[in-house]
Write a structure and sequence with these properties.
Helix content is about 60%, strand content about 5%. By secondary structure, it is mainly alpha-helical. It is globular, with a radius of gyration of 19 Å. The relative contact order is 0.14. About 5% of the residues have low confidence. Pathway: Lipid metabolism; Phospholipid metabolism; CDP-diacylglycerol biosynthesis; CDP-diacylglycerol from sn-glycerol 3-phosphate: step 3/3.
């Protein structure tokens, strides 16, 4: 549970935190992880907004949130359905809405988002100015922020760490992509190796062959 809470709050490995950014069924919870996870959901929303254009649909935003934990995943290159993110969002759309609607309403109230209509598929416009960009960037956990800032968050002269400032929206988006791809790539390699060792060579090979076949079909079907 300590490892879970640490990853949710800091994105140290961005594995468990990535899982909890999507709808899951929690079976055992001694730490009230749903409350802890609110920090993770807000950070995921901020990261997805930084990767979104000035106007987007609610579904587009959920797809961006869902895709965060697949950036840099080696399996997405050859062993996963290319439409995996789209299918996850379509199959769990109302669950995504239940998770993220309070945060979207909060950002609307703060003036970061403008909701054109909120029916079955809301359409949003966001403020892409530098002030809003730095606000969203500051909502990300400290570990990815530190890595985006080259490992140094700086100091205000009194020994208190300060948040790095971003000079443009494009810089912020590129930082998010670079750091998350690196984290997800490392996690996906560890998971693949663990699965291979746990299942054994022959079982792992058969599983991989099935995944690759499914991935190939998704890329050849129009």
């Amino acid at each position: 549970m300590q490892d879970l809470a640490q990853d949710v709050l800091t994105w140290k490995n961005f594995y468990l935190s990535g899982r909890l950014q999507k709808p899951v069924r929690i079976l055992v919870d001694n730490w009230d992880i749903r409350k802890v996870n609110k920090v993770n959901l807000k950070a995921a929303t901020s990261a997805a907004l930084l990767l979104s254009p000035s106007e987007f649909t609610e579904g587009d935003l959920y797809a961006n949130i869902c895709s965060l934990s697949y950036m840099g995943d080696l399996r997405m290159l050859f062993a996963e359905d290319k439409n995996k993110v789209k299918k996850i969002v379509q199959g769990s759309y109302e669950l995504f809405r239940a998770m993220y609607k309070p945060l979207l309403q909060e950002y609307v109230a703060e003036g970061l988002l403008n909701c054109q209509h909120y029916s079955s598929q809301g359409v949003f416009k966001q403020d892409c100015g530098l002030s809003s960009t730095n606000y969203l960037f500051s909502s990300l956990p400290c570990i990815p922020q530190s890595q985006m800032a080259g490992g140094n968050l700086g100091s205000n002269g009194a020994g208190v760490a300060t948040r790095p400032l971003i000079s443009s929206r494009q810089e912020a988006a590129n930082c998010v992509r670079r750091v998350l791809r690196r984290k997800v790539r490392a996690s996906s390699v560890r998971q693949a190796l663990s699965g291979f060792l746990a299942a054994g060579g022959s079982n792992a090979a058969r599983y991989l062959a099935k995944k690759m076949s499914k991935s190939w079909k998704s890329r050849t079907l129009t």
